[in-house]
Model the fold of this input.
Amino acid sequence: MGNLLEIDNLISVDNNLNKISEKIQKGERLDFQDGVNMFNTSDIHSLGKLADYKKRQISGDKVFFVLNRHINPTNICVLSCSFCDFAKKKGDKDAYEMTVDEILNGIDDEMNEVHMVGGHHPTWEFDYYIEIVKSIREKHPDLHIKGFTAAEIDYFHRRWKIDPEESLSRLKEAGLTSMPGGGAEVFSPRVHKLLLPGKSKASRWQEIHKIAHNQGIKSNCTMLYGHIETIEERVDHFIQLRDLQDETKGFLAFIPLQYQTGTTQLTDNPATPIDDLKMISIARLMLDNVDHIKSYWVTIGEETASIGLNFGADDLDGTIKKENIMHAAKAKSPGGLARDKMVYLIKEARKIPVERDALYNEVNFYND
Ligand code: V47
Done:
């Protein structure tokens, strides 16, 4: 197992990384140029070593996972974001709407967390979402309900004139326990204008997470990468997240979301495994105030995800059972992973598998 002092011996062929290593050992914060230099490095091994060093300072050799399920109540969406294959229009062949009973049928007692996000439905009233959350809470008093992206919360305001303070407090009262990190995409106004002109802006995403944090609702944060964004835009996104976390301390985890080309085909050069590992490592090193970094097997595949556990990630996300959004965009990973497979992948990375709940309380160790 790892030794915290190992990093003392790091001598990289990339002198920029040696300087970054010094800063990390002194506990100094990395700046914008450090972020850009890390993306430009050819020494992926040293970068991974630095990120693993930082990870071990926070969570030792533990790698977390959760028994969870994704539920997407509807794929009908008023938006037409150009990276998304999941959204459909009412009347489309594959459009669907779930009833409360259908949602409840998808949840079993073994699960610790339900992750619920969906399209911006044109006619579903806010009260229907309250009914969904309340019904899940009544039937499963101990289940963690992580639901509604900041983009959905903003949509409740735009569509139904319910401001985020009110929607979040009513959802919390109904049983919501935390928020996922989706909808952030890339904060750059340039990318926003080109890919998601109708969706809520970066400043609104941040404002809504701030409101949630002030109400005691923890959340996650994400970045969608590997499409038209530049390295500088990625680094800027990290710095904006880090600034917000300094203010509120409400983010639990960061999830790098690799863009799945599907039919949207925004790029001829989708992210490679090297880029995936850089995203994980650089997230770990730039986001020095976010404890958990996920190696999200759904978008990068089990193979790269397990390598990511030695490149700064300390969380393999969850078993999920049936993932819809990335699989609508033809993700090659399976729809879900069994608990045993998660444990196996983590052990293969020579880390200690720890089953967690949604707030990172430790539920079960698999250290034999
Ligand atoms: O915001 C849509 C992304 C996100 C594509 O908080 C795509 O624990 C890749 O946020 N290729 C929703 N990504 C998923 C999400 C998430 C996932 C897992 C865990 C957590 C968490 C959050 O899915 C959207 C968007 O960025 N998305 N289309 C696509 N073609």
The chain is about 40% helix and 15% strand. Residues 1-5 have pLDDT under 50 and may be disordered. The chain has two domains: 4-55, 57-365.
